[in-house]
């Protein structure tokens, strides 16, 4: 008896396309539902079929990868804020360093002025 192959049977290639689509979209901040919609277009299937296949078969195989993809994604604003705070901290450090240098230079100038006023050459001019 020959086994009849269903037209809509999932192949290993279909599974791979579905899995890579889901993982890529989730890694970039998308939802699994959106990933099923995108995969449905790629595979000429319904989003429900893609979701069912993922949840019934592939989720167990790719569950760890999915968790990693979810953790890896950071909202672009979060990254931008981290960079801004880092720059702000660098500016604060530079500001503190410049204030100290300014105070040292001011003290140095005052010492030079005192020495000049006390200099015997200064009294000869008057």
From TrEMBL:
<protein>
    <submittedName>
        <fullName>Transcriptional regulator</fullName>
    </submittedName>
</protein>
<feature type="domain" description="Myb-like">
    <location>
        <begin position="2"/>
        <end position="58"/>
    </location>
</feature>
<dbReference type="InterPro" id="IPR009057">
    <property type="entry name" value="Homeodomain-like_sf"/>
</dbReference>
<dbReference type="InterPro" id="IPR014243">
    <property type="entry name" value="RsfA-like"/>
</dbReference>
<feature type="coiled-coil region">
    <location>
        <begin position="81"/>
        <end position="108"/>
    </location>
</feature>
<dbReference type="InterPro" id="IPR001005">
    <property type="entry name" value="SANT/Myb"/>
</dbReference>
<keyword id="KW-0175">Coiled coil</keyword>
<dbReference type="Pfam" id="PF13921">
    <property type="entry name" value="Myb_DNA-bind_6"/>
</dbReference>
């Amino acid at each position: 008896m020959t086994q009849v192959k269903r037209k809509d049977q999932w192949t290993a290639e279909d599974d791979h396309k579905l899995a890579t689509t889901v993982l890529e979209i989730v890694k970039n901040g998308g939802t699994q539902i959106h990933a099923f919609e995108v995969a449905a277009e790629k595979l000429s299937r319904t989003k429900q079929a893609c979701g069912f296949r993922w949840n019934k078969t592939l989720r167990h195989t790719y569950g760890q990868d999915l968790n990693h993809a979810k953790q890896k994604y950071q909202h672009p604003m979060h990254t931008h804020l981290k960079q801004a705070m880092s720059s702000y901290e660098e500016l604060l450090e530079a500001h503190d360093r410049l204030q100290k240098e300014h105070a040292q230079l001011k003290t140095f100038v005052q010492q030079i002025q005192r020495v000049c006023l006390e200099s015997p050459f200064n009294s000869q001019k008057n």
